[in-house]
Design brief:
homodimer; 333 residues; 19 helices; 75% helix; globular; Isoprenoid_synthase_dom_sf (chains A, B); Polyprenyl_synt_CS (chains A, B); Polyprenyl_synt (chains A, B); magnesium (chains A, B); transferase (chains A, B)
Chain lengths: 333, 333
């Protein structure tokens, strides 16, 4: 690996390795997103699917298949499948509930699109389903059906746990498994399955994806309080304003005295937020060192992800997956 | 068939024949609807799934399997599958768009449930997907994946065609195939597929379900203008108030002179509806005999459904399916 590569981020290195496959994935996505009867579909999805995201999930599938010695093109189908499922969940996440309107955040345009978001998401999910059927692997279908159920269950759980100070770290973990890790682990596992990799390897690929997904989401939640807006594109405090019980807040609530608890009840449970509350919330997290503790949790999951790689063959992609895990957590280091 | 049976409606006769199977379907639905992590899920779905609807779609699957000589319990899994898909689409249809709010129809409670409706619908869809994977039949998965895509595409098409006077009878037919017929035809076809019925029979079962579904939806749209509210539970004119381009209106628009066209533009395209407009709309449909023409179309589809049954074996269930087709259209005769 030359000097030039040292400065290249892990996902960019992977994108370079899988350049041809990713081009095929993008072409397949464009082909299957099209609808003869309903031109609105590509309109709604274009900004999501074509925006040239990092294609992290599809790359995980391509990497797992490559590492497992796969030869064929089902990896491309499955990479497109996981991207469609991801995009469908994004669309469904966009659906606005009353609380969002009550806080005056939703625009008329957003609302008008509620129904489009739902139905186009359903369309993408159906397209994903068709793509996986084309692989002819019942095991792949089983994995992705189970992942889909975990995703949906996690989303509902997040909805019911929202604004509830009784939310525990266990519940948070279940939510995170649903909203992020289930698709990561399915993406890596199916890559091994289509390559007919030994059971110990498909299990290792699952474990890697699971731990990476959890670490990734914890970091994301941490960045909401600690991130550099310019670098991450996220606004500091969005989760606080949306009254989401993420790990740094759950830990702060657990450590709260009576006065602090009243603060969390007012701001998170009742949603009565005033100027200076975000600063106060962050000050409480610093006082109880919950941001550091959350970062330690993320690091532990990333370590688990890397440990999971041990049973996998010695292969350049294995190192890329390890580097990717480090990179995920480096965002907040 | 005894005298007592003569008074029994076809779907009740089928429910009697499939009593044991339907009990198993209901038990399976209750079992798979449950969520260890998210108790809101059964809460949201209970009123839909347990309300004891006619279970028309599950019965079509049971009937098709029985008629094809199927022995086993995959018919029960697939019957629950189609009911879950049906319920998921109902939940997603419930999502409110801005226009509904603008007209002041949506209550706060309805809105609060937007997000629940979406996510619980996704959960049911995933559960359906798991159930069909359990049948181990890639052909069944292919049929239901294609049906799901047709359903989603039809829903998006309906959204974009809404309030558009340029909507043709062809577009209406595509929408109806998506919103109703795709699941009917998949329900009957998979019943034949799991029984390993000859190709000509699975094709006949598909054709029957397709034509029955189209006839069923046309009758439903007709009842919106011609029904007896007490008998159907539908309010006359709901579709008109929601500015839906259903067949009786499409035919009336096609026959409209300049003054009538202005009326449709004002009431449907602009949504400016006043007292007496519904009566005027119905008067125009009578003037152009579009309700009669719509009924004739429904009768033609029902005749096609019955004709499709010809290649199927001589079996008591075949007559029940023919009677069911007649019953569907008898609702408006």
């Amino acid at each position: 690996m030359g000097l030039d590569h040292a400065a290249i981020k892990p996902h960019e290195q992977m994108a370079e390795r899988f350049d041809g496959k990713l081009t095929a994935v993008n072409a397949l996505i464009a082909e299957r997103m099209a609808s003869r009867h309903a031109p609105r579909i590509p309109q709604v999805t274009a900004h999501l699917v074509e925006a040239g995201g990092k294609r992290l999930r599809p790359m995980l599938t391509l990497a797992a298949a490559d590492l497992s010695g796969y030869v064929g093109d089902h990896d491309v189908r499955l990479a497109a499948t996981v991207e469609f499922i991801h995009t469908a969940t994004l669309l469904h996440d966009d659906v606005v509930d009353e609380s969002a309107q009550r806080r005056g955040r939703a625009t008329a345009n957003l609302l008008w699109d509620n129904k489009s978001s739902v139905l186009v998401g359903d369309y993408l999910f159906s397209r994903a389903f068709q793509l996986m059927v084309e692989t002819g692997s019942l095991r792949v279908l089983d994995i992705l059906a189970n992942a889909s159920a975990t995703i949906a269950e996690g989303e509902v759980l997040q909805l019911t746990a929202a604004r509830d100070l009784a939310t525990t770290e266990d519940i948070y973990l279940q939510v995170v498994r649903g909203k992020t890790a289930a698709l990561f682990s399915a993406a890596t596992e199916v890559g091994g399955v289509i390559a007919a990799a030994p059971e110990v390897q498909t299990r290792a690929l699952f474990d890697y994806g699971d731990a990476l997904g959890i670490g990734f989401q914890i970091v994301d939640d941490l960045l909401d309080f600690r991130g550099d807006t310019a670098a991450t594109g996220k606004n500091i405090g969005d989760d606080f304003r949306e009254r989401k019980l993420t790990l740094p807040i759950i830990k702060a609530v657990a450590a709260a005295d009576a006065t602090e608890r009243a603060f969390w009840q007012r701001t998170i449970e009742k949603g009565d937020q005033r100027d200076g509350d975000l600063e106060q919330a962050i000050a409480l997290m610093h006082a109880h060192r919950t941001l550091d503790a959350t970062q330690a949790d993320a690091l532990a999951w990333i370590a688990r992800a890397k440990d999971a790689l041990a049973p996998l063959p010695d292969h350049p992609v294995r190192q890329m997956l390890a580097d990717l895990a480090d990179y995920v957590v480096a965002r907040v280091s």
